[in-house]
């Protein structure tokens, strides 16, 4: 009986220990729940911080993109304003018969002329007025316009109106260009005067439009780039006579500006009509003008 009681007591003791262990396990599981929740909270907070950081980065990128677009917009606006200034400068220079140079443009309107701007200016002037920008000497530019027969015959055409001085000057330049090109691309100054005399233009008589003819031909047209005049250094006639005028034997060439404006084939067509023959009859000029 004592052993049985001990056994019963042992069972009771084991039951108590088992109960204690279940209680401890239950308490342990209960105490682990807040830890798990805490971990979940930390993870959630980390995710929220990551989302916020991502949003901030996105806002920063959008802000930078907006600033970049604004900068591009401002630069484009500035370029368009410069483009307008350059177009106006070309038109004014053309009206004053002055070539446009990079240096003058920088001085007068503070614009650096580059190849892209020249292309854009040409496109705008051609679209609006029918002009073409030409570089007749390095870094020197002019604008020219090719007129059709319809332009010339239409008195109401707004782009084909010249004042008296300009139209007379263009007519004179055309005659000079025809004379020079049809005579091997150079003539003497004295030969030029003989041709101009038939048009009522004489060196010793002031012209109503051009004034002093020698000054107009040898200074103004040379300065404007229409003509090039070269005096002969060792002229025999000049050495033999103290009264001989060396300018008379000077060679007259078309300047780069006039060369850029003149269509040689139209010159040949015009001269052929004047003489009543065909362009092909001028064998040397026909071959040369059609090969250039």
Q: How would you explain this protein's 3D organization?
A:
- The chain is mainly alpha-helical and 292 residues long.
- The chain has a domain at 165-261: Arc Repressor Mutant, subunit A (Orthogonal Bundle).
- The protein is 65% helix and 9% strand.
- It is built from 11 helices and 6 strands.
- It has helices at 2-95, 102-109, 115-128, 149-153, 164-181, 189-197, 213-223, 236-240, 256-261, 264-275, 283-291, and strands at residues 100-101, 131-137, 140-145, 187-188, 227-230, 251-254.
- The strands form 2 sheets. It has a 3-stranded antiparallel beta sheet with strand order 1-3-2.
- Helix 1 crosses helix 3 (115-128) and helix 5 crosses helix 10 (264-275).
- The chain is globular and about 65 Å long.
- The N and C termini lie far apart (141 Å).
Strand content: 5-15%
**CATH topology category name of the domain at 165-261:** Arc Repressor Mutant, subunit A
As a whole number of angstroms, the C-alpha radius of gyration is 46 Å
Spans where pLDDT lies below 50 across 5 or more residues: 1-7, 151-161
User: Which structural class do you get from the secondary structure elements?
Assistant: mainly alpha
The assigned CATH architecture of the domain at 165-261 is Orthogonal Bundle
**SSE succession:** HEHHEEHHEHHEHEHHH
Shape: globular
Average pLDDT figure: 75
Question: Which features does this protein show?
Answer:
292 residues; mainly alpha; Arc Repressor Mutant, subunit A; three-stranded antiparallel sheet; globular; disordered N terminus
Question: How are the SSEs placed, and which strands pair?
Answer:
Blueprint: H1 2-95, E1 100-101, H2 102-109, H3 115-128, E2 131-137, E3 140-145, H4 149-153, H5 164-181, E4 187-188, H6 189-197, H7 213-223, E5 227-230, H8 236-240, E6 251-254, H9 256-261, H10 264-275, H11 283-291
Helix pairs in contact: 1-3, 5-10
């Amino acid at each position: 009986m004592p052993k049985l009681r001990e056994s019963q007591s042992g069972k009771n003791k084991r039951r108590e220990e088992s109960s204690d262990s279940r209680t401890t396990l239950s308490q342990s599981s209960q105490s682990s729940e807040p830890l798990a929740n805490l971990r979940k909270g930390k993870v959630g907070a980390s995710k929220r911080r990551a989302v916020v950081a991502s949003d901030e980065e996105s806002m920063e990128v959008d802000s930078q993109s907006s600033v970049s677009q604004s900068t591009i917009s401002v630069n484009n606006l500035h370029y368009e304003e410069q483009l307008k200034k350059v177009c106006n400068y070309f038109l004014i220079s053309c009206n004053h018969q002055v070539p446009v140079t990079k240096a003058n443009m920088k001085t007068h309107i503070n614009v650096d002329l580059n190849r892209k701007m020249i292309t854009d200016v040409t496109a705008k002037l051609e679209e609006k007025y029918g002009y073409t920008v030409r570089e007749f000497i390095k870094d020197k530019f002019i604008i020219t316009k090719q007129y059709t027969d319809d332009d010339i015959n239409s008195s109401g055409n707004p782009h084909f109106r010249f004042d008296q001085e300009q139209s007379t000057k263009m007519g004179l330049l055309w005659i000079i260009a025809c004379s020079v090109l049809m005579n091997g691309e150079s003539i003497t100054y004295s030969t030029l005067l003989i041709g101009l005399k038939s048009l009522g233009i004489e060196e010793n008589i002031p012209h109503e439009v051009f004034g002093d003819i020698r000054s107009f031909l040898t200074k103004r047209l040379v300065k404007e780039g229409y003509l090039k005049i070269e005096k002969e250094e060792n002229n025999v006639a000049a050495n033999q006579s103290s009264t001989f005028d060396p300018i008379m034997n000077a060679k007259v060439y078309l300047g780069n500006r006039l060369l850029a404006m003149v269509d040689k084939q139209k010159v040949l067509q015009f001269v052929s009509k004047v003489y009543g023959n065909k362009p092909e009859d001028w064998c040397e000029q026909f071959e040369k003008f059609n090969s250039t």
